[in-house]
Amino acid sequence: MARRERDPRRGREATPRSRPARARDGQPRKPPPRTRPAARKPQSRARTRAGTGGAFGMTGTRRAALLAMVVCALALSIAVPLRTYLAQREELREVTASQETLRAEVGQLEQRKRELADPAHVEAEARRRLHYVRPGETPYIVQLPGDEERELDQERPETKPAEDKAWYEQLWDSAAAR
Question: How many Å apart are CA 75 and CA 113, to the nearest integer?
């Protein structure tokens, strides 16, 4: 088995060569005298991989700061669209509820429109609410116990006799709604 020697220049084991290196004159070269290699000057911290903390030449603190900045940038770029999305969802929910309320109201109004299209219903409403009667009919008002509490004036608008004012004062009062 071949004996491996350490290559002092490279700091690793040298591989055995098949033939010895020769000088220019063809004679085998003598190995240099074995001397102890001089102590090397340590390289600067920036040039050694151990001091940089990674392939990009950044320390752990710098990497953490860069990671924090990236996370903050991502959070901010997601926060605004997310807030808009949630606000629009809430607005859509409110509009949908309002739309359902309006649909129910439209249904009630359509039902009322169908009722008012019937002449018999219109006549019944006029008789009940406006106390209309047909020619030749005698109107009767039945008063039940407890009707004394309910005044007839509440159902009909008040009509006061005109006060003793000039016509222009009465006109002004009616226009000013006094």
Answer: 56
